[in-house]
Amino acid sequence: xxxxxxxxxxxxxxxxxxxxxxxxxxxxxxxxxxxxxxxxxxxxxxxxxxxxxxxxxxxxxxxxxxxxxxxxxxxxxxxxxxxxxxxxxxxxxxxxxxxxxxxxxxxxx
Amino acid sequence: xxxxxxxxxxxxxxxxxxxxxxxxxxxxxxxxxxxxxxxxxxxxxxxxxxxxxxxxxxxxxxxxxxxxxxxxxxxxxxxxxxxxxxxxxxxxxxxxxxxxxxxxxxxxxxxxxxx
Lengths: 109, 115
Description:
The complex is a heterodimer. Chain A has strands at 3-5, 9-13, 18-25, 32-37, 44-49, 53-57, 60-65, 70-75, 84-91, 97-99, 103-108. Chain A is an all-beta fold. Chain B is mainly β. Helices cover 0% and strands 50% of the residues of chain B. Chain B has strands at residues 4-7, 10-13, 19-25, 31-37, 44-50, 53-56, 64-67, 73-78, 87-94, 105-106, 110-114. In chain B, strands 2, 4, 5, 6, 9, 10 and 11 form a seven-stranded mixed β-sheet that branches. Chain B has a four-stranded antiparallel β-sheet with strand order 1-3-8-7, with no helix packed on it. The chains are: A mainly beta, B mainly beta. At the A-B interface, β5 of A face β10 of B.
């Protein structure tokens, strides 16, 4: 079966750095997405990785290791508005998007 | 601004009473998706349209139907809603061409309550 694992919940402090991990087992791989979803709202696109390495976008960075089936999302200089769920999703060999259940990130002052 | 619009944002229906959710897009994307998402769970793909081609997920109940009358609009019909169908329904679009991978743009969702 196809599976994406993320921690259910994480807590961090405003101004700090947090890393949200994602591991996947899918039938093939055609890229990995990270989405942010605030409570009661739709997911919004954060990043896309298809090659190994780190992609940086302002305060957010995403890393991919295809050989390990592993990615992480790194959030720096945390702000209260970063409190949200972060969903990892992988395109498999059939270009089906497989979603993780998301990691709920709680930011404390 | 180009966007994905869903109406209504909140829908209440009674057990067994048919309901239709709508989605429209101004992005001119060729692919439209319907997802069901329950609290703290991953979005679950119900079906998608690649242009006019309808693709049903194997585990989508027959109770769920969809229509795409043109590029801009897509509807989700729930013929006989059960209590288990209460969820957030998300519409998404993407432009898929020779490069089959592209980000999906989501509408704000419709939260369905079944009484």
